[in-house]
Amino acid sequence: MDLTPIWLTLKLAAITTLILLALGLPLAYRLSKKRSFFKIVIEAIITMPLVLPPSVLGFYLLLAFSPQRGLGKWLSEVFNVQFVFSFQGLVLASVIYSMPFMISPVKSAFQQLPLSLSQASYTLGKSQWQTLRYVLLPNIKPSLLTAAVLTFAHTLGEFGVVLMIGGNIPGVTRVASIAVYDSVEQQDYPSANYYSLILFAITFVMVMGVFIYNKYQVKTPLA
Amino acid sequence: MITVNIQKKLKAYNGVQLLHLQKAFVPGSITRITGPSGAGKTTFLKMIAGLIKPDSGIIKAYEVWFDADKKINLPPQQRKTGFVFQDYALFPNMTVKQHLEYATDDAAWIERLLAIGGLDTFTAHKPEYLSGGQQQRLAILRALAIKPRLLLMDEPFSALDIKMKGGLLTDLQKLFKELQATVIIVSHNPQELDGIADDELVIGSEV
């Protein structure tokens, strides 16, 4: 049995999660502070992939990055990067598609911390960055883990967006969810079952892991 | 001299209320602030610390910290007031000792503060495993750790029993002298600072 789609899926999910951690943390932190109209617009845009059919998102990404026109043409001429039917295209689409799963838990975790925590840190002479690093982030660790796992798991399950922008190129864009669909279309049920079972097992173990971590975190009076 | 002359609109349950405060604090003195709930006592302390911006006026503490007309507004990091928050604002991820180490590198000073606060046997405990009184003492010690010239305390003794408070206050007074700190304390309890406070400011009408 060909394991490539599974590896490709795991690679895509890992890269997406890492990018979203780097991108999402500062963004969630910014959004957790005072609201402005501009921030509401940004939040709405970030949340859109939650409610939009994935095929719609995929369709627009396909149009935007088509090498025949506009942005896609410019990217391919100047940087020689192509986002359509390529692995980097999948990464880009996944980052956009999974962004709400990273941003919204982290943002609400920041918001639930009492304002006085950062204020106390500021009066001690600490900068915003030091406060974020030593006070805020350590106190939202469980939410951070949940967000990362959800992002990872959500990327594993991506289908519509991936199909639209990546297609079904073996070894390049043919991730596990596509492999399942493709196998079923060819009436190769054993293969479909094989990929499905692996996806099911991975996601189940991950979600269970988070639940266990958050529920039974060992607590001791001494650090 | 530390002089404050500021205005701030406060949103209260019965509409907007204008807080206008004017007061001079003698360096090295202890001032008690009283007034009914919601009168703006905490807001006043936070405006001095730079955590809330007044609408207009001037705050001068050795240098100009805030001047609405000249658009001067030093951030809290530069004012470095010692601040004891009413909700303590302890960091859940840090042990007692880490709280003080986060504020200062001076190990000898940390040891001394721990002894004064009676927390020297709890250095490795996180806030959730401290009693209410211990948490409050830690909040006071953390504010003192930066050796502030101006110390702002919001109901700092509310969780302490009388015996503990007596001993702690005597020690704190010595520290204040040593640091030549000017201290402003918000307190509900009228007798709490008798014989200790040099001055008083009443915020809001007491009806």
From TrEMBL, chain A:
Residues 6-210 form the ABC transmembrane type-1 domain. Pfam families: BPD_transp_1 (PF00528). GO terms for cellular component: plasma membrane. It comes from Mucilaginibacter glaciei. Keywords: Cell membrane, Membrane, Molybdenum, Transmembrane, Transmembrane helix, Transport. It is a multi-pass membrane protein. The chain crosses the membrane at residues 6-28, 40-63, 83-103, 143-165, 194-213. This is Molybdenum transport system permease. Its main location: membrane. It is found in: Cell membrane.
Automatic annotation (TrEMBL), chain B:
Pfam families: ABC_tran. SUPFAM superfamilies: P-loop containing nucleoside triphosphate hydrolases (SSF52540). Residues 1-207 form the ABC transporter domain. GO terms for molecular function: ATP binding; ATP hydrolysis activity. This is ATP-binding cassette domain-containing protein. Keywords: ATP-binding, Nucleotide-binding, Transport. It comes from the Bacteria.
